């Protein structure tokens, strides 16, 4: 939802300049994509951002018979006249459910399908919107029953109000299922780790960082103190007990300092299973190799009380005592 200042038509020159700069930057970024033609009309049909209507995800209108001003047109107060679509009933129903679709999209981006955490950098396109026959009949009845001189918009909307919750749930589930079809990835919170150590324990420092699934990004020597300074990136999920372990391994000769540095994509499919002949020969049907992304995902889902697909009993006859 737009802020009260924007919704009321009050937008300062500075705010307008910021919005125009954002639109120009997005248009320039989309123009650099490989399939630039597919992204050419995204800003002209932008429905909303999410989550909280300001997040890094986008919902784009691609419904053929539904014309609505883009989000930037609404904010800048440059709304174009809505053309009458070929299917007037569909146009009316989509206008009624506009906010419900937006609410469902906000819920989907606020709690993604993997770990119920906010999504980042995902764009959804609404290609079609179909309505059952009984809903269309109710809309027509509402239009026919409108009294002359009365507020027809409210009378036409009232019979459809009971479908609002269903539209929100449908949009949320559709966004989540669509995201799962495109092999999503987890984003790990990372620390920037600065370690000072002597040359004698430098190898042990590297070993501890590697065991914690970190990576070395730089190394330099301080000539004044004869200490090596090692810069590395370390996942937050692997950082618990890191300081104690590195001090223990180096007998207190290494001093780590952890600073939060943002998020990084873990380029591993949490739902990966071997499918090709080479993968089946190397790993087998069960894929004995640990799927790191799946382990992280299941850990978060288990902590939140969500469903975890885990086979507890593999061979039932070995889990109980069979009596003769």
UniProtKB/TrEMBL annotation:
Glycosyltransferase as a keyword? no
Which top-level group of life is the source organism from?
A: Eukaryota
Residues forming the Elongation factor EFG domain are: 185-274
Against SMART domains, the record matches this protein to: EFG_C (SM00838)
> What SUPFAM superfamilies does this protein map onto?
EF-G C-terminal domain-like, Ribosomal protein S5 domain 2-like
InterPro entries with a match to the protein in the record: EFG_III/V (IPR035647), EFG_V-like (IPR000640), EFL1 (IPR056752), Ribosomal_Su5_D2-typ_SF (IPR020568), Ribsml_uS5_D2-typ_fold_subgr (IPR014721)
Keywords (A to Z) from UniProt: Elongation factor, Protein biosynthesis
The record's Gene Ontology biological-process terms are: cytosolic ribosome assembly
> What Gene Ontology molecular-function terms does this entry list?
GTPase activity; ribosome binding; translation elongation factor activity
Q: Which residues form the signal peptide?
A: none
Family annotation (Pfam families): EFG_C, EFL1
Q: Which GO terms describe its cellular component?
A: cytosol; ribonucleoprotein complex
Protein known as: Elongation factor G, III-V domain-containing protein
Organism this protein belongs to:
Thamnocephalis sphaerospora
């Amino acid at each position: 939802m737009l802020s009260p200042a924007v919704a009321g038509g009050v937008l300062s020159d500075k705010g307008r300049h910021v919005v125009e700069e954002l639109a120009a930057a997005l248009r320039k970024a989309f123009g650099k994509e490989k399939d630039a033609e597919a992204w050419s009309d995204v800003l002209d049909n932008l429905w909303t951002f999410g989550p909280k209507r300001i997040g890094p995800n986008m919902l784009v209108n691609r419904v053929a018979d539904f014309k609505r001003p883009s989000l930037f047109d609404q904010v800048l107060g440059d709304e174009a006249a809505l053309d009458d679509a070929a299917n007037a009933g569909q146009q009316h129903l989509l206008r009624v459910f506009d906010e419900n679709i937006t609410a469902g999209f906000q819920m989907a981006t606020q709690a993604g399908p993997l770990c119920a955490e906010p999504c980042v950098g995902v764009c959804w396109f609404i290609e079609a919107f179909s309505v059952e026959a009984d809903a269309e009949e109710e809309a027509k009845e509402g239009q026919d029953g409108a009294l002359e001189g009365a507020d027809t918009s409210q009378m036409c909307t009232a019979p459809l109000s009971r479908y609002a919750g269903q539209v929100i749930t449908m949009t949320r589930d559709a966004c989540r299922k669509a995201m799962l079809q495109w092999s999503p990835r987890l984003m790990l919170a990372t620390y920037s780790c600065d370690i000072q150590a002597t040359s004698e324990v430098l190898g042990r420092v590297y070993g501890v960082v590697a065991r914690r699934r970190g990576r070395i990004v730089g190394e330099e020597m301080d000539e004044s103190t004869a200490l090596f300074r090692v810069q590395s990136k370390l996942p937050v999920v692997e950082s618990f007990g890191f300081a104690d372990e590195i001090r223990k391994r180096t007998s207190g000769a290494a001093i780590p300092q952890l600073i939060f540095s943002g998020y990084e994509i873990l380029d591993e499919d949490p739902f990966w299973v071997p499918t090709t002949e080479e993968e089946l020969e190397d790993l087998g049907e069960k894929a004995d190799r640990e799927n790191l992304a799946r382990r992280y995902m299941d850990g978060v889902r288990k902590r939140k009380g969500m469903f975890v697909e885990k086979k507890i009993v593999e061979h039932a006859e070995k889990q109980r005592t069979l009596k003769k």
